[in-house]
Amino acid sequence: GAPSPQNPAISSVIRKKLMGYVGFANLPNQVHRKSVRKGFQFTAMVVGESGLGKSTLINTLFNTTLYPPKEPLHPSAERPKTVAIESIGADIEENGVRLHLTVVDTPGFGDFVNNDDSWKPIVENIESRFDSYLEQENRVNRLKVVDNRVHACLYFIQPTGHSLKQIDIEFMRRLHTKVNLIPVIAKADTMTDEEIANFKQRILSDIQHHNIHIFQAPTYENEDEETIAEAEEIASKIPFAIVGSNKFVGTPDGRKVRGRAYPWGVVEVDNEEHCDFVKLRQMLVRTYMEELREYTNDVLYENWRTEKLVSMGVAQDSTVFKEINPAARLQEERVMHEAKLAKMEAEMKMVFQQKVQEKEAKLKQSEEELYARHKEMKEALEKQRNDLEDKKRKIESGRPITPEKNATGRRKGFLRT
Ligand code: GTP
């Protein structure tokens, strides 16, 4: 039957000592195979003004039509009043590895007359995903944790060739502590190579000027040359200048490529000479997917969680921490138990000392009493001896014993008459 506390089989298992090979050596392999079978969860968010090519890029990036083609918005049609957030999920399989990809779209961003608060619903969305993760982490069964946190945010910059707009800066300033920001220059095929190079410089200096933290390709020290070169190559392309297209077009030399055809030629999406699409894809899907997930978990989520706990009043009452941190709770219980033991010991010592003192006092008292009695008896005996010796001397000297005179001068004749 199923093992249970009543089942004797299980207690014999526990009592057995582990000798030799257990099979831990296979664990990494097992974990790896399991995660390959279960697949990875990755959530990307796209933000940018309408018409910058967000849906097109996502479809291009993951080589699927994640986004069904949209009906163009009729001029008289009403625009959505707020920044609405939509998310679309898809399972993508590549070389037997399944990736559950979720793309969070934010249509309507920056489309209003007053865009001051455009970032707000996006921050709220990101934080509510942190909230749901935290809630799952605190559940008893933590095996089925679904990670819906946003691991990367592609921020689309309009290809103006000037500098960043106020809305861009505001958005990045509000979001850079909550999400991995990856700025991209949209529709890069509308600019010349030189314009793109200058625009990139301006964007980077704006970002630096406003102390905005964008996702950094990790710097490796003890890696092989190839890895270092790849990391440097990717870093040098940020902000990625991208061109998106799901359509195949013919090139003058007769190839069929994903790209955009113009009277002056074809811009190829997958050609690194033409745009940074390949580098962006490489960074997201191949090189840094794990880093993006890790940074989200270890830094962004962790900072948010700490801040949240502090704002919930951990300072005034540490129970929040204990509820969340079993180690802290155990430690506290141990300290309390030790304090209790120490108190009991001190009490026992005190009682013992008191008893000893009482006994000592009693002994001392009886000793004094004995000594006093002994002294008394000794004195009485001494007196008797003196008296007798007195009498003896008088008898020996032959004098008759005369009674002593009393105070009134009369003889006390009652002793010997
Ligand atoms: P919303 O859904 O309204 O927020 O727009 P979006 O940002 O998703 O843009 P979408 O992908 O729908 O593209 C808008 C238009 O731009 C379409 O006509 C696309 O064909 C075109 N487009 C997309 N990517 C590019 C690009 O890289 N270069 C050029 N020139 N046009 C593009």
Describe this structure in words.
This protein has 417 residues and is α/β, with parallel strands linked by helices. It has 2 domains: 21-324, P-loop containing nucleotide triphosphate hydrolases (Rossmann fold), CATH 3.40.50; 325-392. It is 47% helix and 13% strand. It has 11 helices and 9 strands. The strands form 2 sheets. Strands 2-3-1-4-5-6 form a 6-stranded mixed β-sheet, with helices on both faces. A 3-stranded antiparallel β-sheet has the order 7-8-9, with no helix packed on it. A hairpin with a 2-residue loop joins β8 (256-262) and β9. α7 crosses α8 and α8 packs across α9. The protein is rod-shaped. The structure holds guanosine-5'-triphosphate. Keywords: Cell cycle, Cell division, GTP-binding, Nucleotide-binding. It comes from Gymnopus androsaceus JB14. InterPro entries: G_SEPTIN_dom (IPR030379), P-loop_NTPase (IPR027417), Septin (IPR016491). GO terms for molecular function: GTP binding.
Task: Pick out its properties.
417 residues; three-stranded antiparallel sheet; disordered C terminus; disordered N terminus; binds guanosine-5'-triphosphate; Rossmann fold; alpha/beta; 11 helices; 2 domains; six-stranded mixed sheet
Report the portion of residues in β strands.
5-15%
For the biggest sheet, the summary is:
6 strands, mixed
Assign the CATH topology of the largest domain: Rossmann fold
CATH architecture of the largest domain, by name, is 3-Layer(aba) Sandwich
Bound molecules: guanosine-5'-triphosphate
> Oligomeric state of the chains?
single chain
Give the count of helical stretches.
11
